[in-house]
Amino acid sequence: MALLNFRRKETPAFSPAREDVEAFLEGYSIEVMPRTAEKVEDFRDLLPKGSRVYIAHIDGTPIDEMVATAKRLRGEGYKVMPHFPARIIKDKATLADWIARYQGEADIKQALLLGGGISEPQGDFHCSMQLIETGLFDRFERLHVAGHPEGNKDIDPNGSDENVMEALRWKQAFSERTDAKMAMATQFCFDAKPVIDWVNRLNAEGIELPVHIGIAGPAKLQTLIKFAIACGVGPSLKVLQKRAMDVSKLLLPYEPDDVICALAAHKAANPDFGIEAVHFFPLGGIKTNATWAIEHGGKSAVPASQA
Predict the structure, then answer these.
(1) Cβ-proximal residues to 267 (8 Å cutoff; 6+ apart), any chain
(2) Which is an annotated GO molecular function term of this record (predicted)?
């Protein structure tokens, strides 16, 4: 199958070598929620065995549903990484209970630690660093933290990235004294240039955490704009807004061809570039996203370096 044999009529901005895109998509991960996972009869029909699947913990989701989803995905052969959103966790005892259940019932050894999507903490924690400092994740084999290529106004209301960068320096220092493998899973973006500039800046600042770049999967344009605004996506939102003004593209589903192609080409030309993997947000549905990834060569499970 040719690399650019897309289902839509549109042609991407340029066409990198297929092997570059395949290499860039190797070891991609994807995110699910318990309610969306319930709609999938068998993930083995959609995702390569051994893929990393994040389980998003949205405020109000019972821990029973989170653990049950983790157990199911582990049973189907996936590396499971549940979210631990600091601001929805009541206290250390609650956190310890969640961890004990994940480990005891689903043999979970990986976690994504993040502040969470609510503005005010519901308990004792407000950031991922506080979760780390409890020591309760010391036996985990892999820990991911959040990254924000276009800043985060909840953390830096003044529009700078001062607090975000300070937190990343703390996490970099922690990564140097823990046995757990660490990486940074980012918010989704729609434009390669801000991502490239941000990753290069991290390198200049001595922050060497591998980046798992967030990419929005294929979806209706209106859906993506809604999520992008809600999630505080920065300058790259203009890519969607520009597309929305083009009548010829308005009704076509968005697919991440251009941003993936640009990042893949940059990675191929700069092998030490800090992006290690792609992390998909399946905003248009898991099956749609998984099909897109397979058609573009993303068939490989998580390589040993990312296990």
Answers:
(1) 20, 23, 24, 273, 275
(2) oxidoreductase activity
